User: Fold these one by one.
Assistant:
Number 1:
Amino acid sequence: MGRQKPGKPGRSGPRGVGGGLLVRDALQEDIPGVCATMPEAFGLMGGAPWTDPAYVAEGLAVCAAGLSGRQRVKVALLDATVVGCSYSGLALGPDGQTAHREIGLIHGVAVRPDSRRPGAASALLTACEEYLGREGARVMLLEARPGAVDFFRARGYQAAAGPAVIVRSSAGMFLYPQSVPSTTLMRKNCQAQDEVVPVATRQGTVLEGVGGQTSKTR
């Protein structure tokens, strides 16, 4: 799903946001709503598969089967109707199983155009961040479409020079490439006290200190 397959969904309970909005983990019954919502989060970055119920059902099944909750699909509900979706998780190595525990990825956050309301996207993003923080992430990465850059910047994300973000974690080197030139790679420290330092290189932005080591990428 998206840039990498999700693992097992977490068991966190529903989160009431106010105004009747509820954020919780996606269930099989939410698949039609996910298909109607999530493709917009990816756009040019490959959202078409999310329109296929079989693809989403398979992804949720993969979530339920492995990786100890390290990937998460969430939905925002208003009057029992899916109005928003998010997909996040720990970065995975090339084998699709080994997790870079210090690195959280926000794969996508979307709210249906006909159901946009204050707070839905922010509530989904907060749910992603809280989950990633509990899983041990020290830094969060995402790839923002042009129209979403200001939204993420207002929530503490900073642009990272492309064409990639390079991070050395306890699981080894992780490369987060820019999918298309029009997007913006962005990063945010999970904790204010975390000393994660960006260093510009020819290959992109190297984040120093995420895994307690100094990167040798330069």
Number 2:
Amino acid sequence: MTRHFFINILKYVLAFGLLAIVIWRNWGDSRQVASKIVSGETPADASAEDMPTFTGQVIAYIPDQSITVQRPANGGRAAAPVELVINSKTQLSDNIKIGSAVAVWEAPPGVGYVWRKHIVEGEPIHTGFLLLAVLFYAAAALLTFVRWHLLVRAVGLPFRLSDALRLGLIGFFFNIFLPGSIGGDAIKAVFLAREHSRRTVAVATVIMDRAIALWALIWFVAVLGGVFWAGGLLQGEGGQECQFIVQMATGIVAVTFGLWLVLGLLPAHRAERFAGRLARVRHVGGSLAEFWRAVWMYRCRQRSVAAAMLISFVGFVGFILTFYCCVRTLFDPADPAQKIPGVTEHFLIVPIGLVIQAMPLFPGGAGIGQLGFGALYRWLGCGAAAGILGSVVQLVICWILALTGYLVYLRLKPAVPLPAGADAKLVPVEA
């Protein structure tokens, strides 16, 4: 047993320990809980953010324990009565009694509530949304392989699309099952470097694939969020939070794009001189120099970078719709106890969740991903349980697809190795 082995075991313990803590802290009551009950009708001047979950007539009431409310008929059909738990945090009017009209605000349901509905009571999940989530994620993951293929070809390395699929699948497998999301990238870089003589360039393609994807993610939030904001879609509950996300993304885009433009004015000899200075930095100099050379190399291939970013935009739509479908898998829109952000809000918060999920030490984002999405849902005024469970469903889908991808990888054969130095004579796609 090596030290590295024990460190990895500790990382898995950390990830799944955090996952258990997140679920435990958000378990809540398995029944519906009232956060506020007011006698009488809803005030006419109540804002949209302060509207009750539902109104009705009290048909049973046990002080400090429970209340049962008969909701009004909907479309001519009588609604089922709702029994709610009353706890120490519930705000109550003084004149509540059987037969009185009340407005009810429900507390966001916890994980235990969804567990009771689908596991104990056996209510089926929405398999249609689950299948859509699998399809969206698979398509988005394949697009990341296409993006990497484009970036490798841009620097003149012989690289077939089937090679990108083969190495992309093994990288995806290790991304999901190794602590942190960098492990799979390292595997891809090593495998690609073994198959080409220009090993530094091969490794640089993997580095820039990740860097361009992150930059495209910020652009995606800034551009799409700006369109939503201009269209008046970032209003109401959670609107200010979404506007803050857009402002932050726009600021980062403005700064980084300015640096990108300035970088284009730098002569090649000065770029190499700067790389030499970075190489002299203790401990991390070599890595900094290689990253700088990779950035400079792709700055000279702007069309390929633009194409890679467009591919990333399409892929992000797939990843966002994946998470939304994962949440809808366990969500019942007819249940007033459940509340999730709309599709528009998901286009702004899921990218943040993806960044959190990619933090090191957590295999496949286990634990940290659920913590992040739960916090983002709570930030928008929704129940954290829905975000946590959606992230769990997504994690399971990733496990299944990663294992399937590994089996496919085992059946794919590598390209015939080229003679040493043969690929060095190829001319890059862009000058």
